[in-house]
Specification:
- By secondary structure, the protein is an alpha/beta fold.
- Helices cover about 25% and strands about 30% of the residues.
- The protein contains seven helices and nine strands.
- The chain has a nine-stranded mixed beta sheet with strand order 2-1-3-4-9-8-7-5-6.
- α5 packs across α6.
- The longest helix has 14 residues.
- About 40% of the residues are buried.
Length: about 240
Amino acid sequence: MEKIRVTVWNEFKHEKEMPEVAEIYPDGIHGTIAAFLNKEADIEAGTATLEMPEHGLTEEVLNNTDVLIWWGHCAHHLVSDEIVERVHRRIMDGMGLIVLHSGHASKIFHKICGTTSVDLRWREAGEKEILWAVNPGHPILKGLDSHIIIEHEETYGEHFNIPQPDEQIFISWFEGGEVFRSGCTFTRGKGHIFYFQPGHETFPIYHQPEIQKVITNAVRWAAPAADTPKIVYGHHPDPIIQK
């Protein structure tokens, strides 16, 4: 069986600078996500971080990545525009992208959305969140219940300044009254993109089995299909139908 090749990208700054985050994620958020994905027989996950040469996202790494998972928070501005362009080209060519939590403010998600900013309401209150499944037949929700409860999470709220999603997977309610489109899919070129909101670094959200299940399902959904047509742009001198 050919495995889905995943690269989990993380800034890896909070875990090194904040002891309370390091206690929750001693191997980094990227290490935690890669570890549970590697328990799946059909997935092979590696990691990359901001401080690595080319942010760990070399041409070779991306050419051998079926799905890229992106977690960022405080260092979006440090990501090279050249690397963002490289990632975007791979998405257009079919690589899947899963953007987590505050990755909504990343350069690559802005490029996907076609906006210079992706704004929302937020506050750090550690309140309860309930994610409601609003597209129950979708593959990302396979094996899950009608809702997921997170006991403590950073609060996000509408309006979420994103283009109209292809599909809405989750809508969240927060204890303070906010609601948020917490699971959305997009298509760009041949690439499938999933934005998934949970994952504030000071809470053990990526240790929660239901959250792990969503991300695992999303990897399988976002993986490129085999034998898809090649996209050709620009001047092409040969006619489609040969006389």
